[in-house]
Design brief:
Length: about 70
């Protein structure tokens, strides 16, 4: 069994096998002070983290910063 990390915002249990530690406030990389600040971390299921990251960073048809690109 994978070690429990915490609960996702949806209420599901997050563990090392099904989740990720998310940065609540987006960071630019390891040199960003918020990267290592544990008060800026939250457990999310892997799929929820992927969707959040795509919405914020662009990808899967989304503009950087949120929203869907026009076709």
């Amino acid at each position: 069994a994978s070690a429990r990390v915490g609960a996702c915002g949806c209420g599901a249990e997050v563990n090392a096998g099904n989740g990720a530690i998310d940065h609540i406030v987006p960071v630019s990389g390891p040199s960003d002070p918020l990267f290592w600040d544990t008060s800026n971390h939250q457990p999310l299921l892997r799929g929820h983290h992927s969707r959040k990251t795509a919405m914020q960073d662009g990808g899967f048809g989304h503009r950087r910063g949120g929203g869907v690109k026009s076709l």
